[in-house]
Every structure is written in C-alpha cells, then in structure tokens.
Amino acid sequence: MRDGTVVVVDGAVVNAGDPALSALDMGFLHGDSLFTTMAVASGLPVFWEDHLARLAKSARFFGYPPLPGGGVLLSDCVLAIGAGPTPPTALRMTLSRGRATVPGIDGVSESVVRVVVPLSRPPRTLAAFREGVAVELFRLPWDPAGDIRFSHKTGNLLWVKWIRQQKISPSSFEQILVNGRGEILEGTVSSVFGVDRDGVLRTAPLESGILPGVVRGRILSWARREGIPVREEALRLSEISSLRELFLSSATLPVLPVRSLTAFGEKLSFLGEAATAGLFLGRYPEELPSPS
Q1: Both 29 and 52 in a single domain?
Q2: Are 254 and 277 in contact (CB under 8 A)?
Q3: Per-residue confidence band for 2, with pLDDT thresholds at 50, 70 and 90
Q4: Which of 94, 158, 166, 253 fits a disulfide with 115 by CB distance 3.0 to 4.6 angstroms?
Q5: To the nearest whole percent, how much of the chain has pLDDT over 90?
Q6: 206: domain CATH number?
Q7: Mean pLDDT of the chain
Q8: Does residue 103 register a pLDDT over 90?
Q9: 292, part of any domain
Q10: Domain boundary among 84, 104, 119
Q11: Which domain does 82 fall in, by range?
C-alpha cells in the first residue's frame, strides 16, 4: 500500500487514498450514512454486540436495505485490525446507503456500502486519568429533545464541527452541551456523568435528545449491578458547584474525570478522587474480549 494507511471497503483491504466509493454514493451526496467508533482489544472490537445492535436499530429506523449479517460486519472489523503494520487502538465503521438506483434525494439502493477505518490513538495512562481534563459548557441554540438527528449516530456531523469551532479555550478537551432549560446533556463526542451531593450517579435521559452511547449504557448497567444509586436525570447548571464528581465516557476513553469546567466565564474545579469513575475504570478490563 502506497502510504501505509489501509481501510476495508465491502470486505476488501484498499489503500485509504485510493478511490473506492462512487461519487454518487448517498453517504457522500446526502450525508446518508451511519457510523460507530469502537475500541480494540485482543484483536477484536470492544462491546461489538452493543455497537452492532445500535447500528441495526438506526438502519431499521431510516429504512436502509437489510444489513449483512453480524458475522460479515465483524469479519470486516477483524480484517481492518490485522491489515496494517501495527494493530489499531480503535475502529470507525461506517455504513452508507450506497449508490442510488435512481439519482435524487428520494433515491434508494439495494445494499449498503461498508467502510472500516483503523484508528491509532495514544493509550490513556493511569496518570492521565488522575490528571483529568478541562472542559467548557456550550449553550445549545436549539432543543434536541425529540429531534431524531441527535438520537442516531449519523454521518452528518456539521453541527458537531460547528460547535467545536466555537471553543473558547484551545486547552478544553470537550464542550458539554446545555439546553435552554439549564440541563446538562452530553459532550460533542462523549457522554456526561455526575455524582450529585446525595451520592447519586446521574446522566441525562435519552428523551432529552442525547445519543445512546454504548459505554454510557455499560456504565448504567454496571452501577445498577454494583448497587450504586443511579438515575437517568439531567444535572442542572445550578447543581454544578455541589457535584462530588463529573466525568466523561466514550468508546475510546472509556472514562475520564473532569478536573476543571468553564461555565460561561466562571471556572470551577473538581479535585476529588473521582471514585465512581475510578471504580468503573478498574472493572473495565473485565469487560474486554479475552485473548484468543
């Protein structure tokens, strides 16, 4: 491969810089695609069944052609993991509706196009976890509740890019989104959890217009199994200063404490031990695929 970067398109390894998709692909023309990003461990995507279920649910909702079986999609992932000179730390799988049989906005296709891109990101060390990150709040000029654009992971990320362009501080790791009611929703690329003054682990409900994050779901299930008080209820701006801890989650983090937060000009610090996030991080290796 010329540049050493490869991807998998419909089950074939190709050079990432080579033309492999039609210019009439609806994912390109209309943003008509779905995707998911997965961590990689022991040569397999982490939480594969969860990611597959979310992709399949969105594909059914948007009326995609039937997806290939889960075994075919997993084989694409495994092929991408082994295709390069070094194993990736994550994968992005994109499913496009493909080339329309008849051009136009109402075009349909007979099969999806599958693209898997290997990603290499520096591993997060325990020291990085303890250090945590700085974030800032961003007040949304719209209400995502009930808006289907924000409850599915689609290839149209213009709104995410626009928000990230409004970042005030270059050192901010993430922007946490707040709606007009003063409710904390999620990050641009992460879920948000907080432990309130009563020791309850809270995150916004899906009905508020957030993405059903795979690791978010895992954290909720884990907390319930462990007997940790948990509630899907949005934190409010008025509660920020009294939070015991605040942390982010995503497929590739998997959890990361917030140490400082800029809230519309006011800077707050969270200097505790991030106990709940630390407990999940300690159990996380038990959730990973076993080496074959």
Answers
A1: yes
A2: no
A3: very low
A4: 94
A5: 79
A6: 3.20.10.10
A7: 93
A8: no
A9: no
A10: 119
A11: 6-119
Q: Which of 122-126, 169-173, 243-247 has the lowest mean pLDDT?
A: 122-126
What would the pLDDT profile of 11-48 be if each residue is shown by its tens digit?
Answer: 999 999 888 888 899 999 999 999 999 999 999 999 99
Question: Which two tokens mark 53?
Answer: 């279920």
CATH number at residue 59: 3.30.470.10
Q: What is the pLDDT of residues 202-232, one digit of tens each?
A: 999 999 999 999 999 999 999 999 999 999 9
pLDDT above 80: residue 281: yes
Q: Is the pLDDT of residue 176 over 50?
A: yes
Examine the fold and report which residue of 92, 119, 146 is the final residue of a domain before the chain moves on.
Answer: 119
Q: Is 1 inside any structural domain?
A: no
Q: Considering the domain boundaries, does residue 67 fall inside one?
A: yes
For residue 113 the two structure tokens come to 């196009």
Q: Do 29 and 102 meet the contact criterion of CB atoms below 8 Å apart?
A: no
Rounded CA-CA distance 173/240 in Å is 18
78 phi/psi in degrees, rounded to 5: -65, -40
**Average pLDDT estimate for 104-111:** 87
Question: Which pair of tokens denotes residue 177?
Answer: 């989104």
Tally the domains of the chain.
2
Same domain? For 142 and 268 the reply is yes
One domain, residues 75 and 146: no
Q: Is residue 280 one of the residues assigned to a domain?
A: yes
Same domain, 266 and 189: yes
Q: Which amino acid is at 97?
A: R
